[in-house]
Amino acid sequence: MSGARPVLALLAALCLWAGGAVAQSSGLTRLTDRDDLFGWEAVGRVDIGRTGFCTGVLIAPDQVLTAAHCVFDRAGRPVSADTIRFRAGLRDGEVIAEAGVAGYVAAEGYDPRGGMSAANIRSDAALLRLATPVNSAVAAPFAIHDRPCDGAQVSVVSYGRDRDSAPSWQRRCNMLWRAEGIMAFDCDVIFGSSGAPVLAAHGVRPRILSLVSGGSGAEGERRAYGMDLADLVTRLKHDLRAATAGQATANPGFKRARAGENRRGTGAKFARP
């Protein structure tokens, strides 16, 4: 779209924050009661260590999609899988379901030391395998939207700083542009929103169009950035199957972690500009 290429060229200089960078504003609905949460149970908080968290979403009973930068520490090392816990539908201490993580993969091409570059935003996704599947009757996984439409109206459900005890739903925001594997939205995101699903209408239930990778508040305008997701998720599922089968790879973009590995990890550390 017009103006997309200059924005991509300057993306790393836009004061991006992996997990959002703009303050909470009007238009967010706090999903406090069980009835409010109906249909959104598959969105949950991904707790990493004692202090870090991101947002994640079930795409299968035992698979949670989140941002890749959430599973690396400040030094760029993959965190130990046994420090990660997914808490579906968490609200004020109550959960719909929760489970530990047996292992995960980050997208090929994601560089945990590469900062918030355009290349990293395109690859900023990770797939967690839960140690215990979540019953689909309790929290129905979301499907991936395979036909993004420029200018689409979208919604976002996320956790965030100062709103981490319950999910917030932004019913309506917009895709501003889509180019070279990156999408921009005017959605309200903040630290902790990393990995939140950006959902677009599809029949009777929305599908996941993208994930929140980062955002900016340049010139007072809210901006959130995400990636084209359909092909990326297909590759992540393939890599997760390979990891489960114990098939190691020399590809440095393929990150695998299982319970007990890399205990030096200190939890999710949001990337800084």
* Quaternary structure classification: single chain
Low-confidence stretches: 6-26, 247-273
Largest sheet: 8 strands, antiparallel
User: According to CATH, what is the class of the largest domain?
Assistant: Mainly Beta
Number of strands: 15
- Tally of helical segments: 4
Cα Rg: 17 Å
Mean pLDDT: 81
Question: Can you give a write-up of this model?
Answer:
- The protein is built from four helices and 15 strands.
- It is mostly beta strands and 273 residues long.
- The chain folds into two domains: 4-28 and 142-227, Trypsin-like serine proteases (Thrombin, subunit H, Beta Barrel); 41-141 and 230-258, Thrombin, subunit H (Beta Barrel), CATH 2.40.10.10.
- The strands form two sheets. Strands 1, 8, 9, 10, 11, 12, 13 and 14 form an eight-stranded antiparallel beta sheet that branches. Strands 2-3-4-7-6-5 form a six-stranded antiparallel β-barrel.
- Mean pLDDT is 81; it is low at 6-26 and 247-273.
Task: Report a brief summary of the structure.
The chain has 273 residues and is mainly beta.
Q: Which features would summarize this protein structure in a list?
A:
single chain; 273 residues; mainly beta; Thrombin, subunit H; 2 domains; eight-stranded antiparallel sheet; six-stranded antiparallel barrel; 15 strands; disordered C terminus; Trypsin_dom; Glutamyl_endopeptidase; signal; serine protease; Serine protease
